[in-house]
Amino acid sequence: MKAHDALDPSTAVYTRRTCHKEYSMIRFYFHSTPNAAKVALFLEEANLPYTAIPVDTNKGEQHTAAFRAINPNGKVPAIIDTEGPGGKEVRVFDSTAILIYLAEKTNRFIGIPENRPELLSWLLFIASGLGPFSGQAVYFQFAAPHFQFAERNSPASAVNRYRREAERHYRVLNEHLSGRDYIVGSNYTIADMSAWGWLDRAPKVLRREVDPLAAFPELKRWFAAIDARPAASRARVVGKEHVSKTDFDEEAKRVLFPSNYSPARE
After folding, report:
1. Which CATH class for the 3-108+235-260 domain?
2. Which of 8, 15, 64, 195 is most deeply buried (CB count within 10 A of its CB)?
């Protein structure tokens, strides 16, 4: 039995949700995060048969041996493709890797060959810049141990650092999108899906801004167009019927941010 087979719906902590398709090719492990949202958007846009399996990260389910067999890094999202290369079952983890894999598998939302260098460049811009800086901006404004400093008129230097870097990435995209409907070429691609996942969290990244994208009109226009797609509405409700832990208690802090704590001694 493969390690991931241990995620049996009758015994495991994971509760399966099967989408409206009759046959599920993809097992999609997720929590309600921006990175998981972008994969959900692809699955809905491509109309791929999949089963969504919630991983309650506030309970630490991402650290179980069963899930680590799917993603050794203990992060969501991850997928199992039951019909991978050569007809074999394969795992794919990290949202950018998943988007590229699924786009190549289906030959959809990948753009034209001439635009491949541009596509990869913007995907990595999001994966290595927009995403991490946005995530850290949210962390230092909402969850960091020195959260109270971010409540004052003079935010902690970490808040300034990550918010301003997130804003700088917004400006780069805003300038790039002038006169464009999509990030790469003239077609909707996985680059748009990837950016959508994080731009959806702009109200948290730029906390206390009434209209966080007001200073970035091209980006705001682009986001509104992507967000209006029917698949985006469907992606937003993936797994909503599953009740995850919401208390941000000591247990949640330890499993979400283990590096903030000293390693347990033997």
Report:
1. alpha beta
2. 195
